């Protein structure tokens, strides 16, 4: 995304070896179709999901302004994820307290989980308390359905989001 780089020299951390692909990571429509809402009713057994599975879904998302994953930048980690029944809470830590990409990162995490998880899950995305100057405003934006829907109608934001999810132009950015 063009503009000011908020953290021009982030700390990069060593990551775990890539895990096997989860069946949850299959690409799905951004919005749930009515046809898919009967999946739970047709299947008597509801498969439980744990924090490691959620972490595997989001750890390989690329930062919108750096050629590194959220795992490499320690923006997300397994202990920052809680799963309680059908409620999933993902807490993430921006690389700097004034990060202008925090909302974009949270939106990307939300979209990855929307596309990957069954519709029975409610997902809350929040900034780690005390890690961002505009923590309350970012959290409000990330957990408001109308604001999320409006953001996803913006072609530039959607392009940046897709690039973060797919890793396009991230490892070898154009000079």
Describe this structure in words.
This protein has 175 residues and is of the alpha+beta class. It has a domain at 49-166: 2-Layer Sandwich (GMP Synthetase, Chain A, domain 3), CATH 3.30.300.130. It has six helices and three strands. It has helices spanning 39-42, 51-58, 102-116, 135-142, 145-152, 155-166, and strands at 81-84, 87-92, 122-127. The protein has a three-stranded mixed β-sheet with strand order 1-2-3. Strand 1 (81-84) and strand 2 (87-92) form a beta hairpin. Helix 3 packs parallel to helix 4 (135-142) and helix 3 (102-116) packs across helix 6. The model is unreliable at 19-29 and 32-40 (pLDDT under 50).
Q: How are the secondary structure elements laid out?
A:
Elements: H1 39-42, H2 51-58, E1 81-84, E2 87-92, H3 102-116, E3 122-127, H4 135-142, H5 145-152, H6 155-166
Parallel strand pairs: 2-3
Antiparallel strand pairs: 1-2
Helix pairs in contact: 3-4, 3-6
Keywords: Chromosome partition
Protein name: MIP18 family-like domain-containing protein
Organism: Tetrapyrgos nigripes
Q: TL;DR of this structure?
A:
The chain is α+β, with helices and mostly antiparallel strands. The protein is built from six helices and three strands. Helix 3 (102-116) packs across helix 6.
């Amino acid at each position: 995304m063009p503009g000011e780089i908020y953290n021009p020299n982030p700390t990069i951390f060593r990551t775990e070896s890539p895990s096997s692909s989860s069946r949850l990571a299959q690409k799905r429509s951004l919005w749930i179709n009515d046809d898919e809402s009967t999946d739970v009713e047709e299947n008597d057994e509801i498969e439980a999901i744990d924090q490691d599975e959620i972490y595997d879904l989001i750890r390989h998302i690329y930062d919108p302004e750096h050629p590194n994953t959220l795992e490499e930048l320690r923006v997300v980690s397994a202990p920052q994820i809680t799963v309680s029944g059908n409620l999933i809470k993902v807490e993430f830590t921006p690389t700097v307290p004034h990060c202008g990409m925090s909302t974009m990162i949270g939106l990307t995490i939300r979209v990855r989980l929307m596309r990957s998880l069954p519709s029975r899950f409610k997902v809350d995305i929040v900034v780690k308390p005390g890690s961002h100057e505009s923590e309350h405003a970012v959290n409000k934006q990330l957990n408001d359905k109308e604001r999320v829907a409006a953001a996803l109608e913006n072609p530039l934001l959607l392009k940046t989001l897709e690039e973060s999810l797919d890793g396009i132009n991230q490892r070898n950015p154009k000079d």
